[in-house]
Fold this protein.
Amino acid sequence: MGRRVLVTGLDTFWGSKVAAALEKHAEVEMILGMGTGKPSIELERTEFVRADQSYSLLERIVRATEVDTIVHTFLVVDSTKMSGRDLHEVNVIGTMNLLAAAGAPGSSVRQVVVKSSTVIYGAGPKDPTWFAEDSPRTSSPRTRLERSLAEVESYVRDFADDNRDILVTVLRFTNVLGTSIKTPISRNLSRGMFPSVAGYDPQIQFVEEDDVVRCLELVVRDRIPGVYNVAADGRLPWSEVARIAGAWRLPLPPVFTREAAALLIRLNLLELPPELEDLLRYGRGVDTTRLKALGFRFDATSAGTVELFARAVRLNRSVGHHLPSYTYDSDVEAFFKYSPAVVRHTT
Amino acid sequence: MVQTQHDATGKATSVAGDQDPEGGALLRFPGPPPDDAGDRASSGPGNHQGHPANAGRPKPAAKTGRVRAASAGSGRKDEPSAGEREPESDTSGPRPGSGAAAHPNGASTGNASPGTGPVLSATTEAKDGTELKSFLADLETANPRRDDVDAWGRSEHFRELARKVGSFYYDRWFRVEWEGLEKIPQTGGALLIANHAGAIPSDAPMIMQGIETELGRPVYGLADYWFRTLPVLGTLWSRGGGVPAHPDNAYRLLHDDGQLVLAFPEGTKGPAKLSRDRYQLRRFGRGGFVETAMRAGVPVVPIAVVGAEESMPILFKVPALGRLLGLPYLPVTANHLLLGPVLGTLIYLPAKFRFRVLDPISFDVKPSLERYPRSRIMEEAEAVRQRLQVELYDMLAHRASVWFG
């Protein structure tokens, strides 16, 4: 029997990308995507079901569809787009419901993949230059996002302990850049004005968005459990990131940083979530030895990732957003998927 | 390569003969074990080329001939200057982020990675607007890096600049002289430790300057994370080879990258001591330097420093004001009395510096273990401290003048 995969956050970048990638695998028999909104890219054979953000419906869905793999991509790591309460609801309560459904008696689920973030390590002066997967934080979680991720991972940890027969994979992605993903860093860079804390030039690590998708694909396909850092080779100073991206660095004072940036944030000229502010002081590096031991190779280095992103930004500046837009329409999708008029070639 | 499989219990078992099923120590998931020593060296995040670069370095000629006997000025004339050595030391610094060229398997997407088995289909399609990905091939050849800052934050260009400024202090002001420089390994990692002194310690930059110009090997200086918290200074410190003194950092630099690392086991207790306690070694922390050297499998090379104490002697301290300013300690120095609060902070007294390198100490233990016997660590640390103390007394007994050596 083929794999039956449930992907959460189908309406987000990650969910849709992962679903699109899994569609190409013949051994994946069925892909079910969940999301609070409509999918934003065209998908061939992924089924879509709309759910509320805390996934209270999930247990019924899992039971009804007998999925064997859950790819939980819907963890919000961009705290600018959501209130603290919603963030908690999505990350903590959503994951809790998801794990409850996956671990219910008689559950068909055999693997749970969770997309976490290296934000969980924090960024502070006492940090080691490279965090390994088992390195502890050097300070207690400071921001709402960090706290929610810490709670999520602790649920996942408990889940793994309680369900020894289910493979649990946690991928901690570092700052992702790419041609299509939008993050506070990418939005700042594309605006051409980039916040920095005067006097600090931290070392930042990136990962290219397609490397991320390939990595998710790999752990699902090969059923790989464990915790892995996902980050490209090398780190580069913030100043160099700005230079490659052709962005102007706006120096914010080292004290009262947030207050100084408040107006610009209000005017939407700048994005500075608290996690980014810490990163702009101390940077972060993560060790990817464990992931590479699986044979995974990154296509782009950290610097290459920034360069690639810079080219995409320059192209967009010249020709505008040239990507074909896609609007999900359930009638149209249903027609293509189920109408006898459409000629379908079975794989 | 590790291949994971589903066994009867659903736990991952790795075919490659991994021993430890509890790999993820933090999240005690079944997973691959912590990388062993071999893996680390080849695929750690930092330096992929550290060892070979250093290993290939030719031995500087006639180094042993000019120890102790050579006078400060004349012996150094025939040495290549920092600038001349630059191309050489340029390649020796770690270049982890130096673009796709450093990427062993970059050109071939997932396909060629030996462990991934069947081809991972490319997830990029023109309809996503990811046609830009075709530039990836181009990135393989064109290095996107604009700077030479390595993964530790060190910049060889900045070091070169710092050495130019430092050479005034090194050659003219402190008139540094070395004994036993040949005892510092030409290749591979070594943990250099020294006594630490002077309100704003000048020993660290001088030792780094000396080894980099005389041996042509980069030195990374471990220091309190406090430096990182300082705007501007913290950045300059990092570009100049400063690394936060975290055991993980020391291990990676020594073991994975095979670099020379300078540490001061006394910590801030060394420079914070009063002038009347000069050359009395403080406690060597908890012997962490010994443990780090054991784990990294590198020798400890002690360096006895004479002169730094007198370059900025502390008369007394003002703890209350220090706390208020967030400083580790706030000293009032002889320099302050002579030159006032501003110049006294900036200008060192021109004491004569002498560095004596002691015989390297190798610990006959298995590297990369989780833990080493505490008693052994404390014993070794105390032995090193005693040796350094004895050498310091010997050097002081032979010193005719604080200013002329």
Notes: The first helix of chain A runs from residue 13 to 23. The two ends of chain A are 14 Å apart (CA to CA).
